[in-house]
Amino acid sequence: MNPAPRGTLTSGTIARFWSPLAATWVMMALEGPLIAATIARLPEAKINLASHGVVFAIAILVEAPVIMLLTAATALVRDRESYRKLRLFTHGLNVLATLMVVVLLVPAVFEPLFSGLLALPREVADIIYGALWIYLPWPGAIGYRRFIHGVMIAAGQTRQVAIGTVFRLVAMAGTAFALPALTDLHGAWVGAAALTTGVCVEAVAARIMATGSIRRMLATSPEESGVAPMGYRSILAFYYPLALTSLVALATHPILTFLVGRARDPLESLAVLPVVHSLSFLFRATGLSYQEAAIALTGNDLEHRRPVGRFALRMGLATTAGYALIVLTPLFEVWFEVVSGLTPELSGYARIPSLVLIPLPALSFWLAQQSAIMVLRRRTKAITMATALGVVAIV
Q: How confident is the model at residue 155 (pLDDT cuts 50, 70, 90)?
């Protein structure tokens, strides 16, 4: 079950396969601005935006062990044996990631880390602790959803992946609008509840829509798929460099949060960090979504490497131009003050970091295409090393 076509691969074919995945990531990227805008309009906006920025950085970090299950399932799941083995592998990783949140909730761990090392104000630390409880189902739901999405992509069900994300966005937005009207929860708690509800709903929707593809996978033997069976040791050898890559890459957000918290004007800087990140992510999301499409379309023998690379180049330049149009024109004030709800004072803190991030959308496409080639060649350790070098450069 490999969607890579035979013969010439046109830009139209790539766009039709990839566009539902891109739409999925764009919808996920819209969550950040929506949540930030919601929190900015609730009481004690500055404190809650800062709390949301910190706790969301932690939530991103604890999902690191499971985030690459999408790539693994796309590349490896072809028959009933590979499906069952990677499914069990997924369950184990989900338990591990959830335990990471449980450990953080132990007061003896939480207090030295957040009140001591990060030196957060008491009111911010208390809000973060409550939000972590709400994020408890987050890593397990993310891991299972990523695994099922990988199965769907391997079966060519990219449109259904996008439909599932619509369910997620609707559930998240509904929760974000309902909770402030019905309760007096802190803004950061509203954001955590909305995001967690969204991913749980999407995981359920994805499993329902993948029923047919899973049934076909279970009916396909390793002999029929033509893929040599992999043992758990081989799966681990393939996956752990990918997991390390995501861990190292996702660690940049908590690292930056830690550094910002100790810089000048820490509360204001922490408040604008999630807003700046969400705008950047909105334009980087399409590039991040391209990796799985490139894995599926490049072909096991890399026969479609050139057209996949040319498409990545064109899209990278287009998304960077779109991002630059916002941060280099009066649209900057429209986005940060009107849409995101920041005060003019806080939007001033966002200008320079937004300008620095201009090249990232194009780089996201280029990195996605290069990483896809490494995955197809089973050279996942090279991805880990490159990512680690990037984090060292950031620090």
A: confident
